[in-house]
Design a protein that fits this description.
With 342 residues, the chain is α/β, with parallel strands linked by helices. It contains ten helices and 15 strands.
Length: 342
């Protein structure tokens, strides 16, 4: 089995979660950690990696001195400054946390570097790796779901999070940094978006002086195939019971995502209400739940892509296009909800 030498760009909470996940896979060796604060890199190495890696406060030094097969980029989206492009230029495979940037210029630069180097690049849209999501995607691909028609989704939470997350120049806000998961899921199910209109605001959290990003957003999206999606989000909802869910309507199946990891599939085969209530009409109901840890699955998929050529479920183009979509919502809001062509 080929050993995979892994390095980390950033040494925060999400990097630690990836370490715990990767430690479950065979043949992974942690070799390098970069953080602009060397003490933080050293602490991460000691506590998370058992002291196995070399630590750097200069990313160029890590690239020059430590051979890497894969780099996990776990920076705030506003902190990217060419490191990912430099790694791609050396043929290092990439795992990028989402969003891959805060603006399209940097995102396009990253995508161009990935394509030029012909490397593997997984983007951390972990919802794509949940079993109910995978099942519906497979049904859309093989035609058993029929055409996708509509999606309605919501993300309700209430958290101040860290300093970088609340800084619009580093985290981008609730819509761009967090709810992008749902916009990516809409693309995954419904295809290419062609236009969007939306509104974004800071309403409930405006009383916190350190909260400088949005906490409320809503958008309507039209897709190339004619499908429509509506997405709404609030970061001023019930703090005890966050809720993330969706309903996806296709020609032959109605899917209610109670959460990304738990969905009810109602297979109606396109029947009308009049047909459904006739004697002998049958509707198959199926409750699909995750039987695994989603972070473990996204990392398994990435490492399998490197070793065995398994197809990635979320690539750099998904990172670029899903960012383009949420930035379209933000731009629409800045223009009083004007329609944005994508």
């Amino acid at each position: 089995m080929k050993e995979i030498r892994v390095g980390f760009l950033g040494a925060g909470r999400i990097a630690g979660q990836h370490v715990k996940s990767l430690q479950k896979l065979p043949g992974i060796r942690f070799v390098g950690v970069y953080n602009h604060n060397l003490a933080k890199a050293q602490d991460f190495n000691s506590q998370q990696l058992g002291g196995a890696a070399r630590c750097y406060s200069t990313f160029s030094e890590m690239l020059a001195e430590t051979p890497l097969d894969a780099l996990y980029a776990c920076l705030p989206p506003g902190a990217h400054n060419g490191e990912v492009e430099a790694a791609a230029g050396k043929g290092i495979h990439l795992f990028l946390e989402k969003p891959i940037a805060l603006d399209l210029k940097r995102a396009q630069s990253i995508a161009d570097a990935v394509h030029t180097s012909d490397i593997k690049c997984q983007v951390g849209f972990n919802m794509r790796h949940n079993e109910p999501v995978r099942q519906l995607k497979a049904m859309l691909q093989d035609g058993s779901a029929g055409r996708p028609l509509m999606m309605h989704a919501h993300w309700f939470s209430s958290a101040l999070r860290g300093d970088w997350w609340r800084d619009p120049k580093m985290g981008g806000g609730h819509l761009i940094e967090q709810v992008i998961h749902l916009y990516d899921l809409a693309r995954y199910f419904l295809g290419d978006p062609v236009s969007v209109t939306g509104l974004v605001a800071n309403l409930g959290k405006s009383r916190f002086p350190q909260y400088a990003v949005d906490d409320t957003s809503a958008a309507t999206i039209k897709f190339r195939n004619g499908a429509i999606a509506s997405l709404c989000a609030s970061n001023s909802a019930d703090p005890w019971h966050p809720a993330v869910g969706a309903t996806v309507i296709c020609e032959k199946v109605f899917v209610q995502f109670k959460s990304p990891e738990d969905a009810l599939f109602l297979h109606h085969n396109g029947m009308s209400a009049e047909e459904a209530w006739k004697p002998g009409a049958v509707r198959k109901c199926e409750d699909v739940k995750n039987l695994y840890n989603t972070l473990d699955e996204i990392n398994r998929n990435f490492i399998a892509a490197l070793r065995d050529g398994e197809a990635l479920r979320s690539n750099v183009d998904d990172g670029l296009q899903s960012l383009r979509l949420v930035l379209g919502v933000a731009k629409s809001s800045s223009e009083n909800g004007a329609l944005q062509q994508l």
